[in-house]
Input
Amino acid sequence: MKLRVAIAGAGMVSRHHLIAWSRAARAEVVAIQNRTLEKAQNRASEFGIRRVYSDLEEMLDREKPDALDVAVGVEAHGHCVRKAADRGVHVLCQKPMAPSLGEAEALVADIGDRVRFMIQENWRFRPQYRRIHAWIREGSVGNIGEFHLHARSSGMISPGPQIPPPALVRQPFLADLPRLVIFELLIHHLDVIRYLLGPMAVKACWTRRIRPRLSGEDFGMIFLVSQNGAGGTVSGNLSAPGFPPRPEDRLELIGERESILFEGNVLKRTGDRPQTLRFDLEDAYQQSYDNAIAHFVEAILTDTPFETDRLDNLETLRLVEAAYAMAQRLQESDKDPAEFGRRDDDPPDPSPVRNDPRGIQGGTGR
Output
């Protein structure tokens, strides 16, 4: 049996989805829809898809697919998911699930258990993170006490006068997002940390808008504590000179007996059984889509749970919302960032490190 799949959306990300679908032996894309029909026709021609539509409901009614892959802008996710669920069609939805936590919670409530509903949160499906997850589960690393996952990119830096930054050439809509680096990028990294280390709580967050032309923040640092007591940070900077235009990850995990470092394309494990692995990052990027879609197909056909179902993804969205709330609290505070979190009745720090309060200007960009 093959899973019959329709896809909504023919933008940049749809190409990665369609490459993955073409590699899924137990699935077939039967139709593609996009409001601009020409874009759908171009994708259909590229991937040999027989039928093309500009109207979502017409596609669903005529094709009666088993599943819908939602690869449109986040503002249209709810509409697409609801239309599919109304027809008993299972859903794979590109992250973020919805523009806000409240809208995501309402969407999950509306869909209920009528259909299977997975979020395409693909970062955790990258091969380096699958390997790290396996190492941790082996037990030789020991309990993780400290973690740091950072993403750096020069994507918002213009290469010259009147030349748009490469990130905006690739995804122009980023310039107008009121919530940018956390909502669009670090949502992946928060999910990865949850995947590797379990439930998390946000303790503080600091955001900045470095590039004035942006509506949202291009830098964010989130301080978290795990349910098991590990502490660490997740951070991102889209305006970091000297880094590649596309975000590059760096992960440190400090365990009781071993430590793990992923930097550039190299994954290292220290301790009694040291190991070094190298990854082709372009290949790993596409593998994340391949692996996520293969997981969706397998789970549908075997009626097994999704790793990133809608309820699991709500936990990641709650961390995103908590991070922005903490950032807003810091922005509105009249305290120096070094004093943030100190109660008024706490004794003064004997040797405080003072930061320039101008450093918090811009906040979340709202």
